[in-house]
Amino acid sequence: MPPAFIAALVTFVAFLIGLTLPDLDLRLWLGHRSALTHSIVPACALLARRRWYPAACGMGAGTGLHLAADTFPNRMIGYATVKLPLVGALSAGASYLWLAANAVAALALAAWLARRLHAPAIAGLLKLTVLAAGARYLWRTDGGWPVLALAAVALSLALRWRYARQA
């Protein structure tokens, strides 16, 4: 298999893992919404070696979508708040800020890495597959609908801006 295909496959598999990785905290007795797993930390850990960059790209995208959905809980109390190790739960406002900032940072990292790692044709195919899998995940998860709505508004505004610039 060509190295470009392997890098794209690693990115996509890491994306799928990243969609559910933040909830690994439940199995590690860290408390739900641990700041260690509900952050950009897992993706950044993969930046330790250059050959792991495709995995960091996918992990950032998957984790970013998960955190974006977690930003819209039914109520930001108790179980839904972010827990810092050795400190305890953040307030509701700080939890919203933590989740939103880490979602944006993880998605920005993924976009930055994707532009540098993948050739345009492969990147286009990867974007379509990640878009489909991400939309499916958001459709079915709590908090996913508001993220889909915000993404639709952002896409609409971006397309309007782009067409207005070309005219």
Radius of gyration: 16 Å
Mean pLDDT across residues: 91
Strand element count: 2
By DSSP (H or I, 4+ residues per run), the number of helices equals 6
Give the strand order, joined by hyphens, for the main sheet. Answer: 1-2
User: How far apart are the termini?
Assistant: 43 Å
Class from helix and strand fractions? mainly alpha
Beta-strand residue fraction: under 5%
The largest sheet, given as strand count, sense and whether it forms a barrel, is: 2 strands, antiparallel
What is the percent of helical residues? Answer: 55-70%
Structural features, described:
The structure is a single chain. The chain is mainly α. The chain is 66% helix and 2% strand. The chain has six helices and two strands; from the N terminus they run αααββααα. A two-stranded antiparallel ribbon has the order 1-2. Helix 3 crosses helix 6 (144-166). The model has no long low-confidence stretch (mean pLDDT 91).
